[in-house]
Each structure stands twice: as structure tokens, then as C-alpha cells.
């Protein structure tokens, strides 16, 4: 069984408490918003249920789907950036052994913007990395063979689904290389990061899968912890039963997203950096991944395109032809009429004044009728 970095992950969360408080506050606001949302739509559902019971039930199901859509939207735009900033700061502690100077929140936000420039780039890289990682898991990973749990092979499909769910932590771990390497070509960093993950996938993915399972257990424990007092209150005030039930569900969900998911991310980051330490991208795995994942090939092409844009046209020519002649190796052009743009430069030894610019009449004898160019230096 690969090592689980649970203790180190817990210590890492303690070192990044500013982010934990921000996460808790942010999810608390989201939770209050969801309670208001359910309160309003729940009231409408009750009214519709009085008209026709199935209509109220259908409306309630639609309301639940809408809540998931709201959380998904908030997670994609606000919480995704918050998670990326938290990842940047945790990477500092993991790789360099100390945190950033100054405020962690400000540093994390700046690190993300310095590497990715724009949120659209962050989302685009993340999508390609996620696709490549999932293609690897479906094709090469065999989770049931590395978890020493009796009867696990009989649940192969279920375990594979859990493994695919856990890749969200792996994606963040791969992108954390951008903060480690201080590299601006995030496409290349992500491309190499996927290759390194393929070379050391067992301990990394096993950690991620176990952490997903732990996350479910944590959610159930939160339901119990919040549910016991809610049941006591509902026994005294039966009319509040539905409201208390919704409060317990939303509260447990928000705490899981704020703290439990941060814990899982921290442990996966540690596992990734420990597992890939000292490795270099392997050409064999590059060939394998390019054969099974369109997203991985697209990631590699974007890395090449980005490198060429940064280096300019000269680098593009070198990349395309393998070599390009330098200015010193290029032979001078054939001499033109005096004063023409291709006229050779005068030697450093004393010589008559150079020919005037093109368009002016040259000082000196008229060229011979044959039309052959006459170099003034021949008369010196």
C-alpha cells in the first residue's frame, strides 16, 4: 500500500490557515444563499403541491438540480481561482520548506496571475490536463490491483469511477508544477507534469482515491454531528423538521467543500511532488499517451506554439528547419550600382568618400557605356 500523507497534509493546512478561513467564510456565504434559495423555492413547491402533489415534488427536484448548478458555477469561477491560489502557497511549503513572504492570499493570487495571465488560460489548461489524466486512468491504471482490500476486484467499475472523480486533485497537483518551476510556458509545464504523473501514478492516484473515500466518510460524520442537535430541536418544534433537515445537509456539504476538500488537495499535492521528485519526462510514456489522448496531443501542440510565440520568428524557423544560418555565415549580396542598397561597405583603410544614397548622382566619372558597375575603390 503506498504511503498516505495524511499527517503532513493536516500540518500543511495549519500552515495555510488564512486560506482555510477564507474558504470557510466563502462557503458560509454560499451556504446562506442556498438556504435562502431553498426557503423561497421550497415555499413555492409547497403551494404547488397543494394544487397537485406530483407538481410540488417535481418542482422540488428541479430546485435541487438548480442548487447543484449554482454551486458548480461558483466552483468554476470563484472557488477555482481560490483553490489555485491556495495550491500556489501550499506548493511553496512543500517544495521550499517555507511559506511566501508577506500575505498568503495576496501572494497566491499574484502567483496564479503571473503564471496564467488570464483565468481563461487557467481553465483551458485545466480542461486539457483533466482530459489527459482521465484518458490515462481509463487506459493504463488498475486501481483494484493496488488497493489491498479483499473483494476489491469485484468492484472494479465502481473503483474506476471513484478514481476518475479523484482526478480533480491530481489536475491541481500537476498544475502546481508551474509554481514550483517558476515557468511561464504553463502549457509545457502541464505537458511534462502529465508525463511525470504517468511515470509515478500508483502512489499519487492511490492517495487521491483513498482521500475521496475519506471525504465521503467525513461527510457522513458531519451529517451525524450536525444532525444530532437538529433532531433534538425538531423533537421540540416539529414544524421546523424540514428546515432543519435542509440546514444540516447544506451545512455538512459546505464544511466538506471548505475543509475536507482542502485536506484532500494538500495530501495529493504532497504525494505528487514526493512521487515525481528527481524524474524526467519519459519518451516511451509520451508515445503511449499521445496514442490514447487527443487532449494530451493538443496540450503538447499548445506548448510548442507558446514557445514559438515567445521566441519570435527566428525560433520558429529554427524549430521548423532544425538550423538557420547566422548573419555571419550569410554571404554578402552581389554588388550593385554605386549608391545602391547592396553596395559593400568601405574598408576601414582610408578611402574616398562613399557613394551617395540611391537616387542622387554619384560624384566621379560617368560609368562606362557597357553598364558594368564601377567601384570607386578601384581608383584609389
Can you give keywords for this protein?
mainly alpha; elongated; single chain; 0% strand; 380 residues
What do you see in this structure?
The protein has 380 residues and is mostly helical. It has one domain (6-313). The chain is 71% helix and 0% strand. It is built from 13 helices and no strands. The chain has helices at 6-15, 17-51, 53-96, 104-116, 119-139, 156-175, 177-181, 186-199, 201-236, 241-276, 283-292, 294-311, 313-321. Helix 1 packs across helix 10, helix 3 packs across helix 4 (104-116) and helix 5 (119-139) runs parallel beside helix 8 (186-199).
SSE topology:
Layout: H1 6-15, H2 17-51, H3 53-96, H4 104-116, H5 119-139, H6 156-175, H7 177-181, H8 186-199, H9 201-236, H10 241-276, H11 283-292, H12 294-311, H13 313-321
Helix pairs in contact: 1-10, 2-3, 2-10, 3-4, 3-10, 5-6, 5-8, 5-12, 6-9, 6-10, 8-12, 9-10
Q: Quote the distance from N terminus to C terminus.
A: 88 Å
Regions with pLDDT < 50 over 5+ consecutive residues? 314-380
Q: Specify the oligomeric state.
A: single chain
**Globular, elongated, flat, extended or rod-shaped: what is the shape?**
elongated
How many domains, as an integer? 1
> What's the β-strand tally?
0
Structural class: mainly alpha
Total helices: the number is 13
Amino acid at each position: 500500500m503506498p504511503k498516505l500523507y495524511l499527517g503532513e497534509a493536516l500540518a500543511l493546512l495549519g500552515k495555510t490557515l488564512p486560506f482555510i478561513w477564507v474558504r470557510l467564510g466563502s462557503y458560509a456565504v454560499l451556504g446562506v444563499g442556498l438556504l435562502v434559495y431553498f426557503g423561497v423555492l421550497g415555499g413555492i413547491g409547497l403551494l404547488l403541491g397543494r394544487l397537485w402533489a406530483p407538481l410540488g415534488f417535481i418542482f422540488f427536484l428541479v430546485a435541487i438540480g438548480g442548487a447543484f448548478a449554482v454551486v458548480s458555477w461558483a466552483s468554476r469561477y470563484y472557488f477555482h481561482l481560490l483553490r489555485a491560489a491556495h495550491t500556489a502557497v501550499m506548493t511553496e511549503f512543500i517544495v521550499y520548506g517555507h511559506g511566501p513572504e508577506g500575505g498568503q492570499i495576496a501572494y497566491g493570487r499574484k502567483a496564479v496571475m503571473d503564471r496564467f495571465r488570464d483565468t481563461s488560460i487557467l481553465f483551458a489548461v485545466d480542461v486539457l490536463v483533466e482530459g489527459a489524466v482521465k484518458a490515462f486512468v481509463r487506459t493504463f491504471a488498475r486501481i483494484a490491483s493496488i488497493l489491498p482490500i479483499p473483494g476489491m476486484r469485484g468492484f472494479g467499475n465502481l473503483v474506476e469511477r471513484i478514481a476518475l472523480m479523484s482526478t480533480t486533485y491530481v489536475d491541481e497537483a500537476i498544475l502546481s508544477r508551474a509554481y514550483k518551476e517558476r515557468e511561464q510556458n504553463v502549457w509545457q509545464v502541464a505537458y511534462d507534469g502529465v508525463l511525470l504523473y504517468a511515470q509515478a501514478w500508483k502512489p499519487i492516484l492511490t492517495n487521491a482515491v483513498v482521500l475521496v473515500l475519506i471525504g465521503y466518510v467525513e461527510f457522513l460524520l458531519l451529517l451525524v454531528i450536525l444532525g444530532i442537535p437538529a433532531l433534538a430541536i425538531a423533537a421540540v418544534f416539529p414544524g421546523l423538521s424540514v428546515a432543519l433537515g435542509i440546514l444540516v445537509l447544506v451545512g455538512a456539504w459546505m464544511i466538506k467543500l471548505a475543509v475536507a476538500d482542502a485536506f484532500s488537495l494538500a495530501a495529493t499535492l504532497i504525494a505528487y511532488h514526493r512521487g515525481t521528485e528527481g524524474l524526467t519526462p519519459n519518451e516511451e510514456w509520451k508515445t503511449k499517451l499521445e496514442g490514447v489522448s487527443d487532449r494530451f496531443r493538443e496540450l503538447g501542440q499548445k506548448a510548442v506554439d507558446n514557445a514559438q510565440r515567445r521566441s519570435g520568428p527566428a525560433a520558429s524557423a529554427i524549430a521548423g528547419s532544425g538550423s538557420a544560418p547566422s548573419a555571419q555565415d550569410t554571404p554578402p549580396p552581389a554588388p550593385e550600382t554605386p549608391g545602391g542598397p547592396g553596395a559593400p561597405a568601405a574598408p576601414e583603410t582610408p578611402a574616398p568618400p562613399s557613394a551617395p544614397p540611391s537616387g542622387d548622382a554619384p560624384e566621379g566619372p560617368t560609368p562606362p557605356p557597357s553598364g558594368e558597375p564601377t567601384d570607386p575603390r578601384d581608383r584609389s
